[in-house]
Fold this sequence. Notes:
Layout: H1 2-17, H2 28-31, H3 34-43, H4 48-67, H5 71-91, H6 96-106, H7 110-116, H8 119-139, H9 157-160
Helix pairs in contact: 4-5, 4-8, 5-6, 6-8, 7-8
Amino acid sequence: xxxxxxxxxxxxxxxxxxxxxxxxxxxxxxxxxxxxxxxxxxxxxxxxxxxxxxxxxxxxxxxxxxxxxxxxxxxxxxxxxxxxxxxxxxxxxxxxxxxxxxxxxxxxxxxxxxxxxxxxxxxxxxxxxxxxxxxxxxxxxxxxxxxxxxxxxxxxxxxxxxx
Length: 163
């Protein structure tokens, strides 16, 4: 959430400072009404698909962090997934209820798994989260999106550094 608050502050600074107006069109940031500005800002909120791209990357990083025994990094990924889903509840209100079901059921096993720091317990928690991903996708008419049970790679360079 802090990341988005920071982005909001930057956006507001950008809006107030503005950039050189294009000669061929009206610059809503400078001459628009408050209502116009709010309308334009709302259009820039990330859609569900944008948020899910980041969730997907963190899902992969989470898997590999657990597999490699990088428990602090795994805990960080869980925290960030939760924050992204909470942000999604705000930016996509029609998904708020199913997102809450996900939050209530998908990450509950990770506390124990991350405390134990053992792959088998972690794998079970990861499988439970994956199952909730599938439930949420099905509930939102996106059942064709099935996260991999065992992601083959991780997007984070933190996990891909040679040891």
